[in-house]
Every structure is written in C-alpha cells, then in structure tokens.
Amino acid sequence: NAGVTQTPKFRILKIGQSMTLQCTQDMNHNYMYWYRQDPGMGLKLIYYSVGAGITDKGEVPNGYNVSRSTTEDFPLRLELAAPSQTSVYFCASSGQGPPLHFGNGTRLTVT
Amino acid sequence: AQKITQTQPGMFVQEKEAVTLDCTYDTSDPSYGLFWYKQPSSGEMIFLIYQGSYDQQNATEGRYSLNFQKARKSANLVISASQLGDSAMYFCAMRGPFSTSYGKLTFGQGTILTVHP
After folding, report:
1. Nearest to A98 among B33, B104, B110 (CB)
2. Chain A interface, mutation test: which of B8, B35, B45, most A Cβ atoms within 10 Å?
3. What is the 3-state secondary structure (H, E, C) of A32-101?
4. Is the CB of B103 less than 8 angstroms away from the CB of A100?
5. Which of B4, B17, B21, B77 has an alpha carbon within 20 to 30 A of B114's alpha carbon?
6. In the predicted structure, residue A1 carries a pLDDT above the cut 90
7. Tens digit of each residue's pLDDT (9 = 90 or more) over B17-33
C-alpha cells in the first residue's frame, strides 16, 4: 500500500547544478501535483497534471519543468539550481474526489 | 482568486482540553471544498477532514470536526480531547469546483499547535 512515493528524501545541490525529483503513485490517479514548502510557510503549487501527457503551471513554476509520460510518474526537474529553490518539495495525487494524497517530501538544500 | 487565511501563528492547549484553529477563506465560486491537513515534526502531510460547500452538516472525523460557517466564510477546525500527539502544524486549504480547479489546493500559512501535559 505505497500511495505516493518520492525520491530522494534529502539532497544537497550546488548552485547551477540540475536534478530530477522523482514521484510515483500506485492509486491510478489522473491528477498529480508538485508543491513546495518554504520554512514556516504553507504549500505553493509549482506544476500539476490532469493526465498522461498533460501538464500546466501553478503559482510558482519558474526554474522548474515537469513531464507526465505515464499515469504513475510525475518527475520534477530543476535546472540551474539557485539558493531560492531551497525548500521541501511535496508530490501529491488525487482521484475525482478529495483528498489529495501526499508523498513524504524531499528536502532540498542549494548552496 | 482564492485566498485562505489562518490568523493564529501558534496555539497552546492543555492535554484533554478542546481547541479551535481558525480559518477564513475567500472565493467567488459557489462550489468549493475545504480541507484540513496535519503536519507533524516528521514532515508528512496527513489529511484530517473535508467539507464541501454544499454539505448541510458540519464534517466530523473522530476527534476532529469542522465548524463551517458559510456566511462568515470560516472553516474552523475543532479538536476535542487534545492529546500530546496532536502537537503539529495544521494547514487549512481550499479548492474551487473540481471541473475547473482539477483538485488544486490553495493553502493557508498554518498554525502550530502545542499540547501541554
């Protein structure tokens, strides 16, 4: 009963490096989301997807890219990492009704 | 645009007492959903309770209830009989009609709840 699985759990990047945060879900959900959470703050939407091959920007998409080639997977790509991208990243998925199911998060530090 | 406001950065409660965490929202959509999530110090997001805008009754889930006052645009979380394990950050969130929001949630800034023994 895995739900939403995110890897890695922690990562330290140097400024200018790139990386991909992985997210996979086993609930056959069409809708998937990436959020970031800065210290002491609420979550902000980066990108979302309504199905394989369909993605769209959220509130804070700059510096990120996503793809959705399968229903299960929704990776988030960071290009040219910057200190402002230091955050905790959450992937989530949803069926037609509530709630959103969240992964356990990836803590990213850019130095 | 939707907005969620949680005005209590921190709250304290004695074990076994009840506590209310405040949440107000703003939206022009007649159909919307309201959520509460718990985030313990370990960091995961735990779904607690959901209220639809057309639901006639206030939602309840065990010790959690949602005090939904539509006219006042408030969706306060009530935790009865607080336990030490309730110490966590609590987020209120909302979405618009699913057909247009696709389930995307807008979050408040959170309230840190500390339960004292």
Report:
1. B33
2. B45
3. EEEEEECCCCCEEEEEEEEECCEEEECCCCCCEEECCCCCCECCEEECCCCHHHCEEEEEEEECCCCCCE
4. yes
5. B4
6. no
7. 999 999 999 999 999 99
